[in-house]
Amino acid sequence: MILFRQELGDVLRDARRSQGRTLRQVSSDARVSLGYLSEIERGQKEASSELLVSVTDALGLPLSFVLREVSDRIAIAEKVTIPDTVPEGLADGTTPLVGAR
After folding, report:
1. Whole-number pLDDT of residue 93
2. If DSSP states are collapsed to H, E and C, what string results for the chain?
3. Separation CA 47–CA 8 (nearest Å)
4. In terms of C-beta density within 10 A (0-12 exposed, 13-18 middle, 19 or more buried), how is residue 33 classed?
5. Domain extents in the chain
6. In what residue span(s) does the HTH cro/C1-type domain sit (predicted)?
7. Do 43 and 9 contact (CB within 8 A), yes or no?
8. Per-residue pLDDT tens over the stretch 72-91
């Protein structure tokens, strides 16, 4: 089963490690407890939107970048292709989302 919190934690940990920063440094900059940030990175806790913004700011990353990376990873796990543009008809509401009721 694909879990958003696990993919998000992986993306945050990968970003932190690629910057050569410790969990302690990022938790301090984000003003989040070390233990809680560790649980988020391990996919054990859900991050609130406020906390997520604090962490992405501490990492110097736009929230949209992090969410896009999570989305891309989930799409790979689901074996789907995400189009680069919004399909015609979807933006104006004439074409329903797949599975929408």
Report:
1. 64
2. CCCHHHHHHHHHHHHHHHCCCCHHHHHHHHCCCHHHHHHHHCCCCCCCHHHHHHHHHHHCCCHHHHHHHHHHHHHHHHCCCCCCCCCCCCCCCCCCCCCCC
3. 9
4. exposed
5. 4-78
6. 12-66
7. yes
8. 999 999 998 877 776 676 66
CA–CA separation, 66 vs 11, rounded Å? 7
Query: What is the pLDDT of the chain when averaged over all its residues?
Result: 90
Provide the CATH topology of domain 4-78. Answer: 434 Repressor (Amino-terminal Domain) (1.10.260)
d(CA 52, CA 49) in angstroms, rounded, equals 5
Half-sphere exposure of 59 (CA within 13 A, CB side): 26
**Cα(73)–Cα(7) distance, integer angstroms:** 7
Pick from 3-12, 40-49, 74-83: least confident: 74-83
